[in-house]
Amino acid sequence: MQKIPVIAIFDVGKTNKKLFLFDEHYRIVYERTAKFTETVDEDGDPCENLESLRLSVFDSLRAVFKRPEFEIKAINFSTYGASFVYVDEDGKPLTPLYNYLKPYPEELQKQFYATYGGEENFSKETASPVLGSLNSGMQLYRIKQEQPVVFQQMKYALHLPQYLSSLISGEFYSDITSIGCHTNLWDFTKGDYHAWVDQEGIREKLAPLKGADEVLSACFPGNTYKVGIGLHDSSAALIPYLVNFQEPFALISTGTWCITLNPFNTAPLTAEELKQDCLSYLQYKGKPVKASRFFGGYEHEQEVKRIAIHFDMSTALFKTLEYHPEIIQKLQRNQRTPEVNQEKGNALPTSGFAERDLAAFSNGVEAYHQFMLDLVAQQVASSQLVLQDTGVKRIFVDGGFGKNAIYMNLLAGHFPEKEVYAASLAQATAIGTALAIHPQWNTKPFPNDLIELKYYAVTHQEA
């Protein structure tokens, strides 16, 4: 029996830990999911069970290596970001895997920014809004201040994907997609670590940088498969689009957050953009990607419940609701769009629909169309922060709102000069992680049919 050449990808989210095997056509030929009960750190704060995760990697690989139909050519990892594993000389963890939502000591944060030029200036240099523990470099600063013995014993601080990679390769590296995403570590104005990293003796605790498209050898004798150094999941999900499309595009990734990613905007962040929740990060080839976001998916969840309760409807109805241009035109004629969204470039956390009186609408369908008008106006304000003056011709929308006909039609109406597509790609993060090292394991050319696109023509000009 001829074996199928495959790549094994560990896709580690906060809730689900998945292992996929992809064949050379990027079809999933095997899938395994694990969930672990969280544990707590020394302060009683919830955190990932690192030992369970470590053992799961070995158990999962043992299971697939036993399968005679597959030939493992490579292994790679993507995980959530802003999470460090502090390892000693032998690669053993010295602390729990602290949660990036762990509260950050206020006084320590004030001390840091006061020492290094103030919040506004520092945030501009590092393209990192002030986010406490979500700025993973701040976790390192905290370890040095609060746990000097651990800091002294620490050989390296590895972001989670690189820690998992080290379990298989036995080597320690840092990856630019993890270092370059709101960590406070990277100075985007000079393309190197920020000065504070040297002043605090942090640089020597960061493993050497290696390209996300490079591979290592496995540390187990007799094995020939290659090991990737791992990627930050947000960067990995962008890779299929970067591989498939050369013309300037933006990707609106929709989930709890609606994040607009523009890989063709390399302009430094302004103080104003930072205040409006923009940030920059580095994609797998080391180039900056400017991103803006607002809490669109979360707001949608809340407002759909409110509409459903008020009009005694099922929330399930809104998942398949058709686009009614006549309702939109009627609502636009009445001009009841909140003033708050009319200022150019004013991207607020929410659309303002929560302040509307639902009694003003004749039924739930009309109310939902008004909500989508408000939400898409907010989406456009958020997206424009990173789209303007960049020559972007196409906008791709993936995630939940890509399946929402009202959202997609309204978005196309707001961008008549651009092509707007709903993009569908199952397991984009895992596929991107495999594509990052494609030439190292796959004998076939880069695939050009991974992403399913649905074009939305402009049906009417937005008011």
TrEMBL record:
Gene Ontology annotations for the cellular component aspect, listed alphabetically: cytosol
Protein name as catalogued: Carbohydrate kinase
Top-level EC class: transferase
Family note: Belongs to the FGGY kinase family.
MF (Gene Ontology): D-xylulokinase activity
Keyword Kinase listed: yes
Annotated PANTHER family: SUGAR KINASE, XYLULOSE KINASE
Source organism (scientific name): Rufibacter glacialis
Classification via CDD domains: ASKHA_NBD_FGGY_NaCK-like
